[in-house]
Amino acid sequence: MRKLLFDLFPLILFFLAFRAFDLYVATGVAMAAVVAQILWLKLRARTIETTHWINLGVIVVFGTATLVFQNDSFIKWKPTVLYWLFAGILLFSQLFLGRNLMMSLMGGQLTLPEAAWKKLNYSWSGFFIFSGAANLFVAFSGYFTESQWVNFKVFGSLVLLIVFVIGQSLWLSRYMKDEPPA
Description:
Elements: H1 2-20, H2 23-43, H3 50-69, H4 73-95, H5 101-106, H6 114-140, H7 146-172
Helix pairs in contact: 1-2, 1-7, 2-3, 3-4, 4-6, 6-7
């Protein structure tokens, strides 16, 4: 739970800053929070995950562009780029390198047949592609306000993730063996 809150820290601060100020202040706050996250991990000699580095790079590039050009389109693209980068990495490593990153990440916790690992990898890729497309729709379709986009970015994306993880858990449960009580 502590790790989840730590990972959500920049998003929570982004949301609070948006509510108190505007999207530009919120963007700066999110950028500072991600940099603080990395510094905190470095100072505590903790492992900085690849996802932290990718998030740092994307928020710095898109956040800087948002602030320099005073154009909110850049920060609205940020979640989509991040999601599609994750999808691309999962797909590229599976298709071209023959390496299943989901198995690398979760292989210590789960024992699955290789076909199930492939399906899991592809389903996460699909989820990230869908999430990126959903963000673009909410951000740029004209049907939603900036405030609604921020709510979707913070809460809608989280709900989508929770529903997806529950679905994945139900699907994975058919591969779990019942262990007799100790």
